[in-house]
Write a structure and sequence with these properties.
The structure is a single chain. This protein folds into two domains: 5-82, Glutaredoxin (3-Layer(aba) Sandwich), CATH 3.40.30.10; 87-190, Glutathione S-transferase Yfyf (Class Pi), Chain A, domain 2 (Up-down Bundle), CATH 1.20.1050. The protein contains eight helices and four strands, in the order βαβαββαααααα. It has helices at residues 15-25, 43-46, 67-77, 91-112, 130-143, 154-169, 176-186, 189-203, and strands at residues 5-9, 30-33, 56-59, 62-65. It has a four-stranded mixed β-sheet, with helices on one face. Helix 4 (91-112) packs antiparallel against helix 5 (130-143) and helix 4 (91-112) packs parallel to helix 6 (154-169).
Length: 208
């Protein structure tokens, strides 16, 4: 029987973000490991995500793609887990979740690829320029213990993943604020469980 909640992923992908989010809400879920070389581009998977990318989740027959959307969706679908603020207290939650999904994601990937917009092009890009984006991100993770306030939320899963991986691989500078934030989040039990599960998949060669 098909599970009510399926994670389509690959341990060498942003699927690690979705796995962490699932571990945080404590939901039971089925994992389907997708292979870059074939299954990710198969007709079956393209009917789930026409982009041919992971992660995706399927919950009670409904598909959600894009990591920020998956985090937001799970926070609402499993509201009792306490990872989405009350509707009246979501300004910072939405602001920084989607700041990371838009300006940060684009600034970091463009910069890493060596694509540096000229100053006169900056208004064409949602992030303006890399340095400004990183400065704003630093202020965001410095203002409170967590990015949306004093409580950990799904925004921290997405923003935190960007900071943890960025500082690890050198796409985000190792400033004190980023290092402290990454350490707070990577010490969470759900993060450690999710990382161990994906690391185990890599060790058993269930990869693409």
């Amino acid at each position: 029987m098909m599970s009510d909640l399926i994670l389509y992923t690959n341990p060498q992908s942003r699927g690690r973000i979705a796995r962490w989010a699932l571990e945080e809400v404590g939901a039971r879920y089925e994992v389907r490991v997708m292979n870059y070389a074939d299954t990710m581009k198969s007709d079956d998977y393209l009917s789930v995500n026409p982009m041919g990318k992971v992660p995706a989740i399927e919950h009670k027959g409904k598909v959600v793609t894009e990591c920020a959307a998956i985090c937001a969706y799970l926070g609402d679908a499993f509201f009792d887990a306490g990872l989405a603020p009350a509707l009246t207290d979501r300004a910072n939650y939405y602001r920084w979740l989607f700041f990371a999904a838009g300006p940060v994601e684009h600034a970091v990937t463009n910069n890493n690829a060596g694509f540096i917009p000229q100053p006169e092009q900056s208004r064409m890009f949602g992030y303006g320029d890399y340095d400004r984006t990183i400065d704003v991100l630093e202020r965001a993770v410095s203002q409170y213990e967590y990015v949306a306030g004093d409580a950990f939320t799904m925004a921290d899963v997405y923003v935190g993943a960007q900071v943890i991986w960025g500082t690890q691989f050198g796409t985000i500078p190792k400033r004190d604020a980023f290092t402290a934030y990454a350490e707070r989040l990577s010490g969470r039990e759900a993060y450690k469980r999710a990382s161990a599960l994906d690391d185990a998949l890599m060790e058993t060669n269930q990869l693409a």
